[in-house]
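Please go through the sequence and fold tokens given here and tell me how the chain folds. Record follows.
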Amino acid sequence: MDIGTKIRAIRNRKKITIAQMCEATGLSKGFISNVENNNTSPSISTLNTIAKFLGVPLPYLLLEKKQHMKVVRKNERTNSTFNNLKIEHLTSKGGLRMMIVEAPPGASIGEPHSHEGEECHLVLEGRILAEQGEDSYIVEEGDSFSWNASVPHYVKNIGEGKAVILISVYSDTELDDIF
């Protein structure tokens, strides 16, 4: 982990000197310097003291860079198609993915399929048939449904107009094959 570099960056962004930090936390200049240069690993208690002084939650200091908040601007979203479905990807790839799926009348995901993870769907517009195992529901605008995606599932637009669905998929592993 690169906690020291993160601490230094926060301190500098907030225009706090090492002397000010030492005075407020009771830590020595040499110790803070060693922490910021990643030459020593402070205890959780010391990290908590530093986090409180910097005004950040302790867990934030422990995040790895790839775990930090990610922003995808509207004009930077990627689009794809799958079985006549138009997909707008709202998040970058990772454990949690969100997308807006637009389906013309009669369009479906194809054959029932399964993959690792969990899915949650919110119908923004239209009328959808959602099936998984013995469960079959017709869901409409404002309705939502979720399921364990390892069980084969099927979604189809059964309305007369287009359907728009916000889908969130979570998996511990990278899912490149779901859309």
